[in-house]
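Notes from the 1:1 (GR / supervisor)

We went over the backlog. Supervisor wanted to see one worked example end to end before approving the batch request, so GR pasted a single chain during the call. The sequence is below; no edits were made to it. Supervisor asked that the structure be written out right there so they could see what the output format looks like.
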Amino acid sequence: MRISRIVLLLGSIIYLAFGILFMVNPDAITDMDGIILPTRSSANHIRAILGGMEIGLGVLLIYFSIKKERIIYGLLVLSGSIGVASLARLYGIAFDGGGDTSNWLSFIAEFSFGVAGFVLYRIERTLMK
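Structure output shown during the call:
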């Protein structure tokens, strides 16, 4: 239970940090990957989706981590959200050829977090029976 709570809180910190960065300064964050935001409207889309959604996921993971009865649901949300993101990144690497070091490192981190969340979910579910 303690490891699961730590993983959820670590995931929430990561989501919150990236979400705040995307919301506060979407240009600086997208520039690191060579993404140019041609209009302020496009910057607002980045703020809303990458900023707001990640902040929301971070807050949701904190909510799930507070009570032990909810931890299992938080692990499912964490593994599903970051796990699917890692698979989408792998799809992009495979079909768009975006396999630079940054993308591979991000994929490994995302996939590892997704697998860890899923494994912990399975363990917690087994312990609940």
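Supervisor's comment: The two ends are 14 Å apart (CA to CA).
Batch request approved.
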